[in-house]
Automatic annotation (TrEMBL):
CDD domains per UniProt: TRX_family
Record-annotated Thioredoxin domain positions: 14-100
Domain of life: Bacteria
InterPro entries: Thioredoxin-like_sf, Thioredoxin_domain
UniProt-recorded name of the protein: Thioredoxin family protein
Source species of the chain: Chromobacterium amazonense
Short name of one Pfam family: Thioredoxin
């Protein structure tokens, strides 16, 4: 079963989302993305109110280009559609936890 949405939402739709949203950029075949899933599950378990969108990235994927994604997985925390924090290829839970500082 695919984890990442192949049909990406439009950047304008994501920018219009109210509240907090965690964007996760990656692809299902990426070993770094696969390795981050246990950390992500831990992080999200204690934050059921956090909207999470896992979107497939790559060539021609506009949402990833708008957000300047270069490496997978990239996690971008948005507040009311604007980026407030980013974690790229997190190696530990602390890196994901740091996204929530100042929220």
């Amino acid at each position: 079963m695919a984890h990442y949405l192949a049909d990406n939402p439009a950047p304008e739709a994501v920018a219009a989302l109210p509240g907090l949203t965690l964007l996760e950029f990656g692809v299902d075949w990426c070993p770094h993305c696969q390795g981050a899933q246990a950390l992500l599950a831990q992080f999200l378990t204690s934050r059921p109110q956090l909207r999470h969108l896992a979107v497939e990235d790559g060539k021609g994927r506009r949402l990833g280009r708008v957000h300047g994604v270069k490496l997978w997985p990239s996690f971008i925390l948005l507040r009311d559609g604007a980026e407030i924090a980013r974690a790229v290829r997190p190696q530990g839970l602390a890196e994901l936890e740091s996204l929530m500082r100042g929220v």
